Amino acid sequence: MNRSFRLSFPLVLVTFVVAGWMLAAPGPALAQKGFGVRAGVSGDPDQFIFGGHYDTGPFIERLSFRPNAEVGVGDNRTTLAVNFEFAYWFPIQNKPWSLYAGGGPALVVYDYNEGSGHGNRTDTEPGFNLLFGIAHRGGFFAEVKAGLIDSPAVKFTVGYTFR
Q: Over the Cα atoms of the chain, what is R_g?
């Protein structure tokens, strides 16, 4: 896979941190269990992505399990990523926001459109994601993922966890 990407990953991370500090109000936020939805964009392949997730809530101190599935469309292929991710939560004292970081393995299925008369080709590949995000105690979150092995190179998503 071609791994060229134009945005600076550290710049994106700093943007998420600064946004979290700017959106301040009283009350801590931590992972709370529930189902949710997500949507965004990925780079390499360049796709629109959407999907769903479940957050277990903290099961060890501030660690939660957040399995999710994402479908990507565009760039002459369809992608299905099933991600088994863990998130460690960093509450911002006296704020409704929390930062989180984590990662986990993925199973990624690429269905390539080979063009008129050539049919489709499907590849199933292993992947791994590193993630960083910010979440509001009301359920809204924004997240960036860096993909390793054969996961999409980068994903930017926003979503909502129903509490």
A: 16
